[in-house]
């Protein structure tokens, strides 16, 4: 009997883009996939179970082995080192990480303050540039920080650029491109290798 594969993923845009990708790969997603208030969704015929979590928690479920696979943004994978395998670049939910701030703000001689949801990524980026900064961790609405004087710079996700524009901010530097990745629990990868390879091949064929 085929064992069930459990896949963790975030609830928002990644879920929508992943559902499109799964449909393109001829997985029959039931209609309840489009009204995703439920936190656990199953495709019985395919022996697949999806669990919907916050982006930063996806890798936690996979690392602990309660999900065999996960779909997470590269941003999340870069921020926290995890004991998981990255199997595939799904090329969905594209965006990029950038340094932004108010136009014409000079960085002071003392360490400038940088607000971000990605303190580790931000800290490595400025360290590699040889710049000393003070990192301030925020959990969302990062663009507020320079507007109210909490920080001179932010490190955040940019997609359309609309949020920066509407808040009068400018991009100073692009850090890196981001897409979503298929990740696997190392033990599941060994014990359910055939099922996982089959899924990877079906997805890889439509990326
Ligand atoms: N404009 C964007 N803003 C944020 N994340 C984006 C954007 N465009 C693509 N992404 C990717 O989507 C991921 C977030 O996934 P998703 O939007 O599905 O999560 P969510 O459950 O809605 O999360 P949140 O609670 O952060 O709104 C990010 O880690 C990033 O890789
Ligand atoms: O370039 P854009 O298309 O405007 O997208 C970028 C914005 O989207 C994300 O925020 P999100 O909507 O996830 O909310 P958050 O502030 O709670 O993180 C990100 O943090 C930016 O604020």
Shape: elongated
Strand content: 25-35%
The helix content is 25-40%
- Return the average pLDDT rounded to an integer: 95
Number of strands: 11
Question: Given the structure, what is the number of helices?
Answer: 8
- Spell out which ligands are present: adenosine-5'-triphosphate, 1-O-pyrophosphono-5-O-phosphono-alpha-D-ribofuranose
Residue ranges: pLDDT <50 for 5 or more in a row?
none
Category by helix and strand content: alpha/beta
Radius of gyration: 19 Å
Order of helices and strands: EHEEHEHEEEHEHEHEEHH
| Major sheet: arrangement of strands | 2-3-1-4-11-5
What summary fits the major beta sheet?
Answer: 6 strands, mixed
State the separation between the terminal residues, measured CA to CA: 29 Å
């Amino acid at each position: 009997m085929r064992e069930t594969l459990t896949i963790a993923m975030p609830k928002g845009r990644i879920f929508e883009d992943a559902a499109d990708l799964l449909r393109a790969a001829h997985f029959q997603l039931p209609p309840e996939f489009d009204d995703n208030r439920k936190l656990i969704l199953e495709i019985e015929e395919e022996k697949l179970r999806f669990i919907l979590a916050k982006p930063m928690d996806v890798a936690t479920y996979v690392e602990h082995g309660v999900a065999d696979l996960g779909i997470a943004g590269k941003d999340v994978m870069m921020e926290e080192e995890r004991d998981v395998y990255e199997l595939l670049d799904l090329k969905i939910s594209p965006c990029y990480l950038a340094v932004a701030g108010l136009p014409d703000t000079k960085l002071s001689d003392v360490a400038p303050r940088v607000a971000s949801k990605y303190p580790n990524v931000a800290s490595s980026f400025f360290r590699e540039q040889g710049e000393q900064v003070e990192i301030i961790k925020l959990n969302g609405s990062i663009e507020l920080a320079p507007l109210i004087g909490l920080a001179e710079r932010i490190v955040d996700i940019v997609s359309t650029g609309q949020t920066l524009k509407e808040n009068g901010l400018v991009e100073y530097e692009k850090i890196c491109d981001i897409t979503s990745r298929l990740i696997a629990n190392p033990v599941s990868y060994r014990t359910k290798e055939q099922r996982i390879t089959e899924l990877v091949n079906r997805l890889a064929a439509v990326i």
